[in-house]
Amino acid sequence: MSVARVSPGAKPRSRGHIEIPSETPETDLEIDGNPIHLTNLTKLFWPDDKITKRDLLQYYANIAPALLPHLHNRAMVMKRYPDGAFGKFFFQKHAPESKPAWISVCNILHPSANLVDFPVIQNLSSLLWVVNLGCIDLNPWYAVCDNADLPDYLHFDLDPTPGAVFSQVLETALLVRDALAAMKIVSYAKTSGSRGIHVYIPIVRGPDQKQVWSFAKAFSKELAAKHAEVITAEYRVAKRPAKRVLVDYNQNAWGRTLASVYSVRPKPRAPVSAPVTWKEIEDGLAIEDFRLDNMPERVKRVGDLFKPILAKTNRVKLERFL
User: Rounded to two decimals, what is the model's pTM?
Assistant: First the structure.
């Protein structure tokens, strides 16, 4: 059970090109009419790849037109890496008391009865503010803030178990796609940016988070039973078979999050969680094909392949499967 409120925020936008200085450890900018102070710009966040915090911020400034609509009005669980991609990290839910007045918040009542004021990324200035705190990847809520219990999409996280190879993940993604298509459900894929593939389905809001989770669980279990040589839906690690791909339905549980589309991941070469076509999956691809250094150019070329996730039309009415 939760209640949610989002404070007023601007429409997602990014006006013009923002160039972040590269030869100074900190800088002050005015973006969206908001003053923002960026720090530790020369700090190496990926030492082996010579990628700095400034490079991370510049990536998010460049990708913002495609990214911001996917974050708008959604609570953000902050995963902070103050020492870079391979240093210690910590989760932060409450917006820090030092946040600027122009940062929107989403208040969600957790089962513990604590009201959590999550920050919300509404525009480029708030995006860069969150990244400046050391957030490498972005973890938004599955529902918008007017009702945090009613998701507007569900997904399957395809994760290889020990001994499995990435070609099995691609095979599993196609099996998920085809099983959904047989139910007349259109799905969209993105790389996780880590080891797997995420398959998303836009749904009409109505079913609560537990109902969405129940559908995902039933689907995953049935698919695993049909393709036991490739797939598992066993969530208990001790009983999970090796050399399989886990179709993880539990990431649809209330309060869970996944890295957003276009999120950079704290892995070597700074890979990005990239939307991909089913043809690309059929032809074979690699996680490292999509990185901080080449993703903005790809989006210029192919557009936002996850734009259908945001559309008001062609969403699945999940009630007919419950």
Answer: 0.94
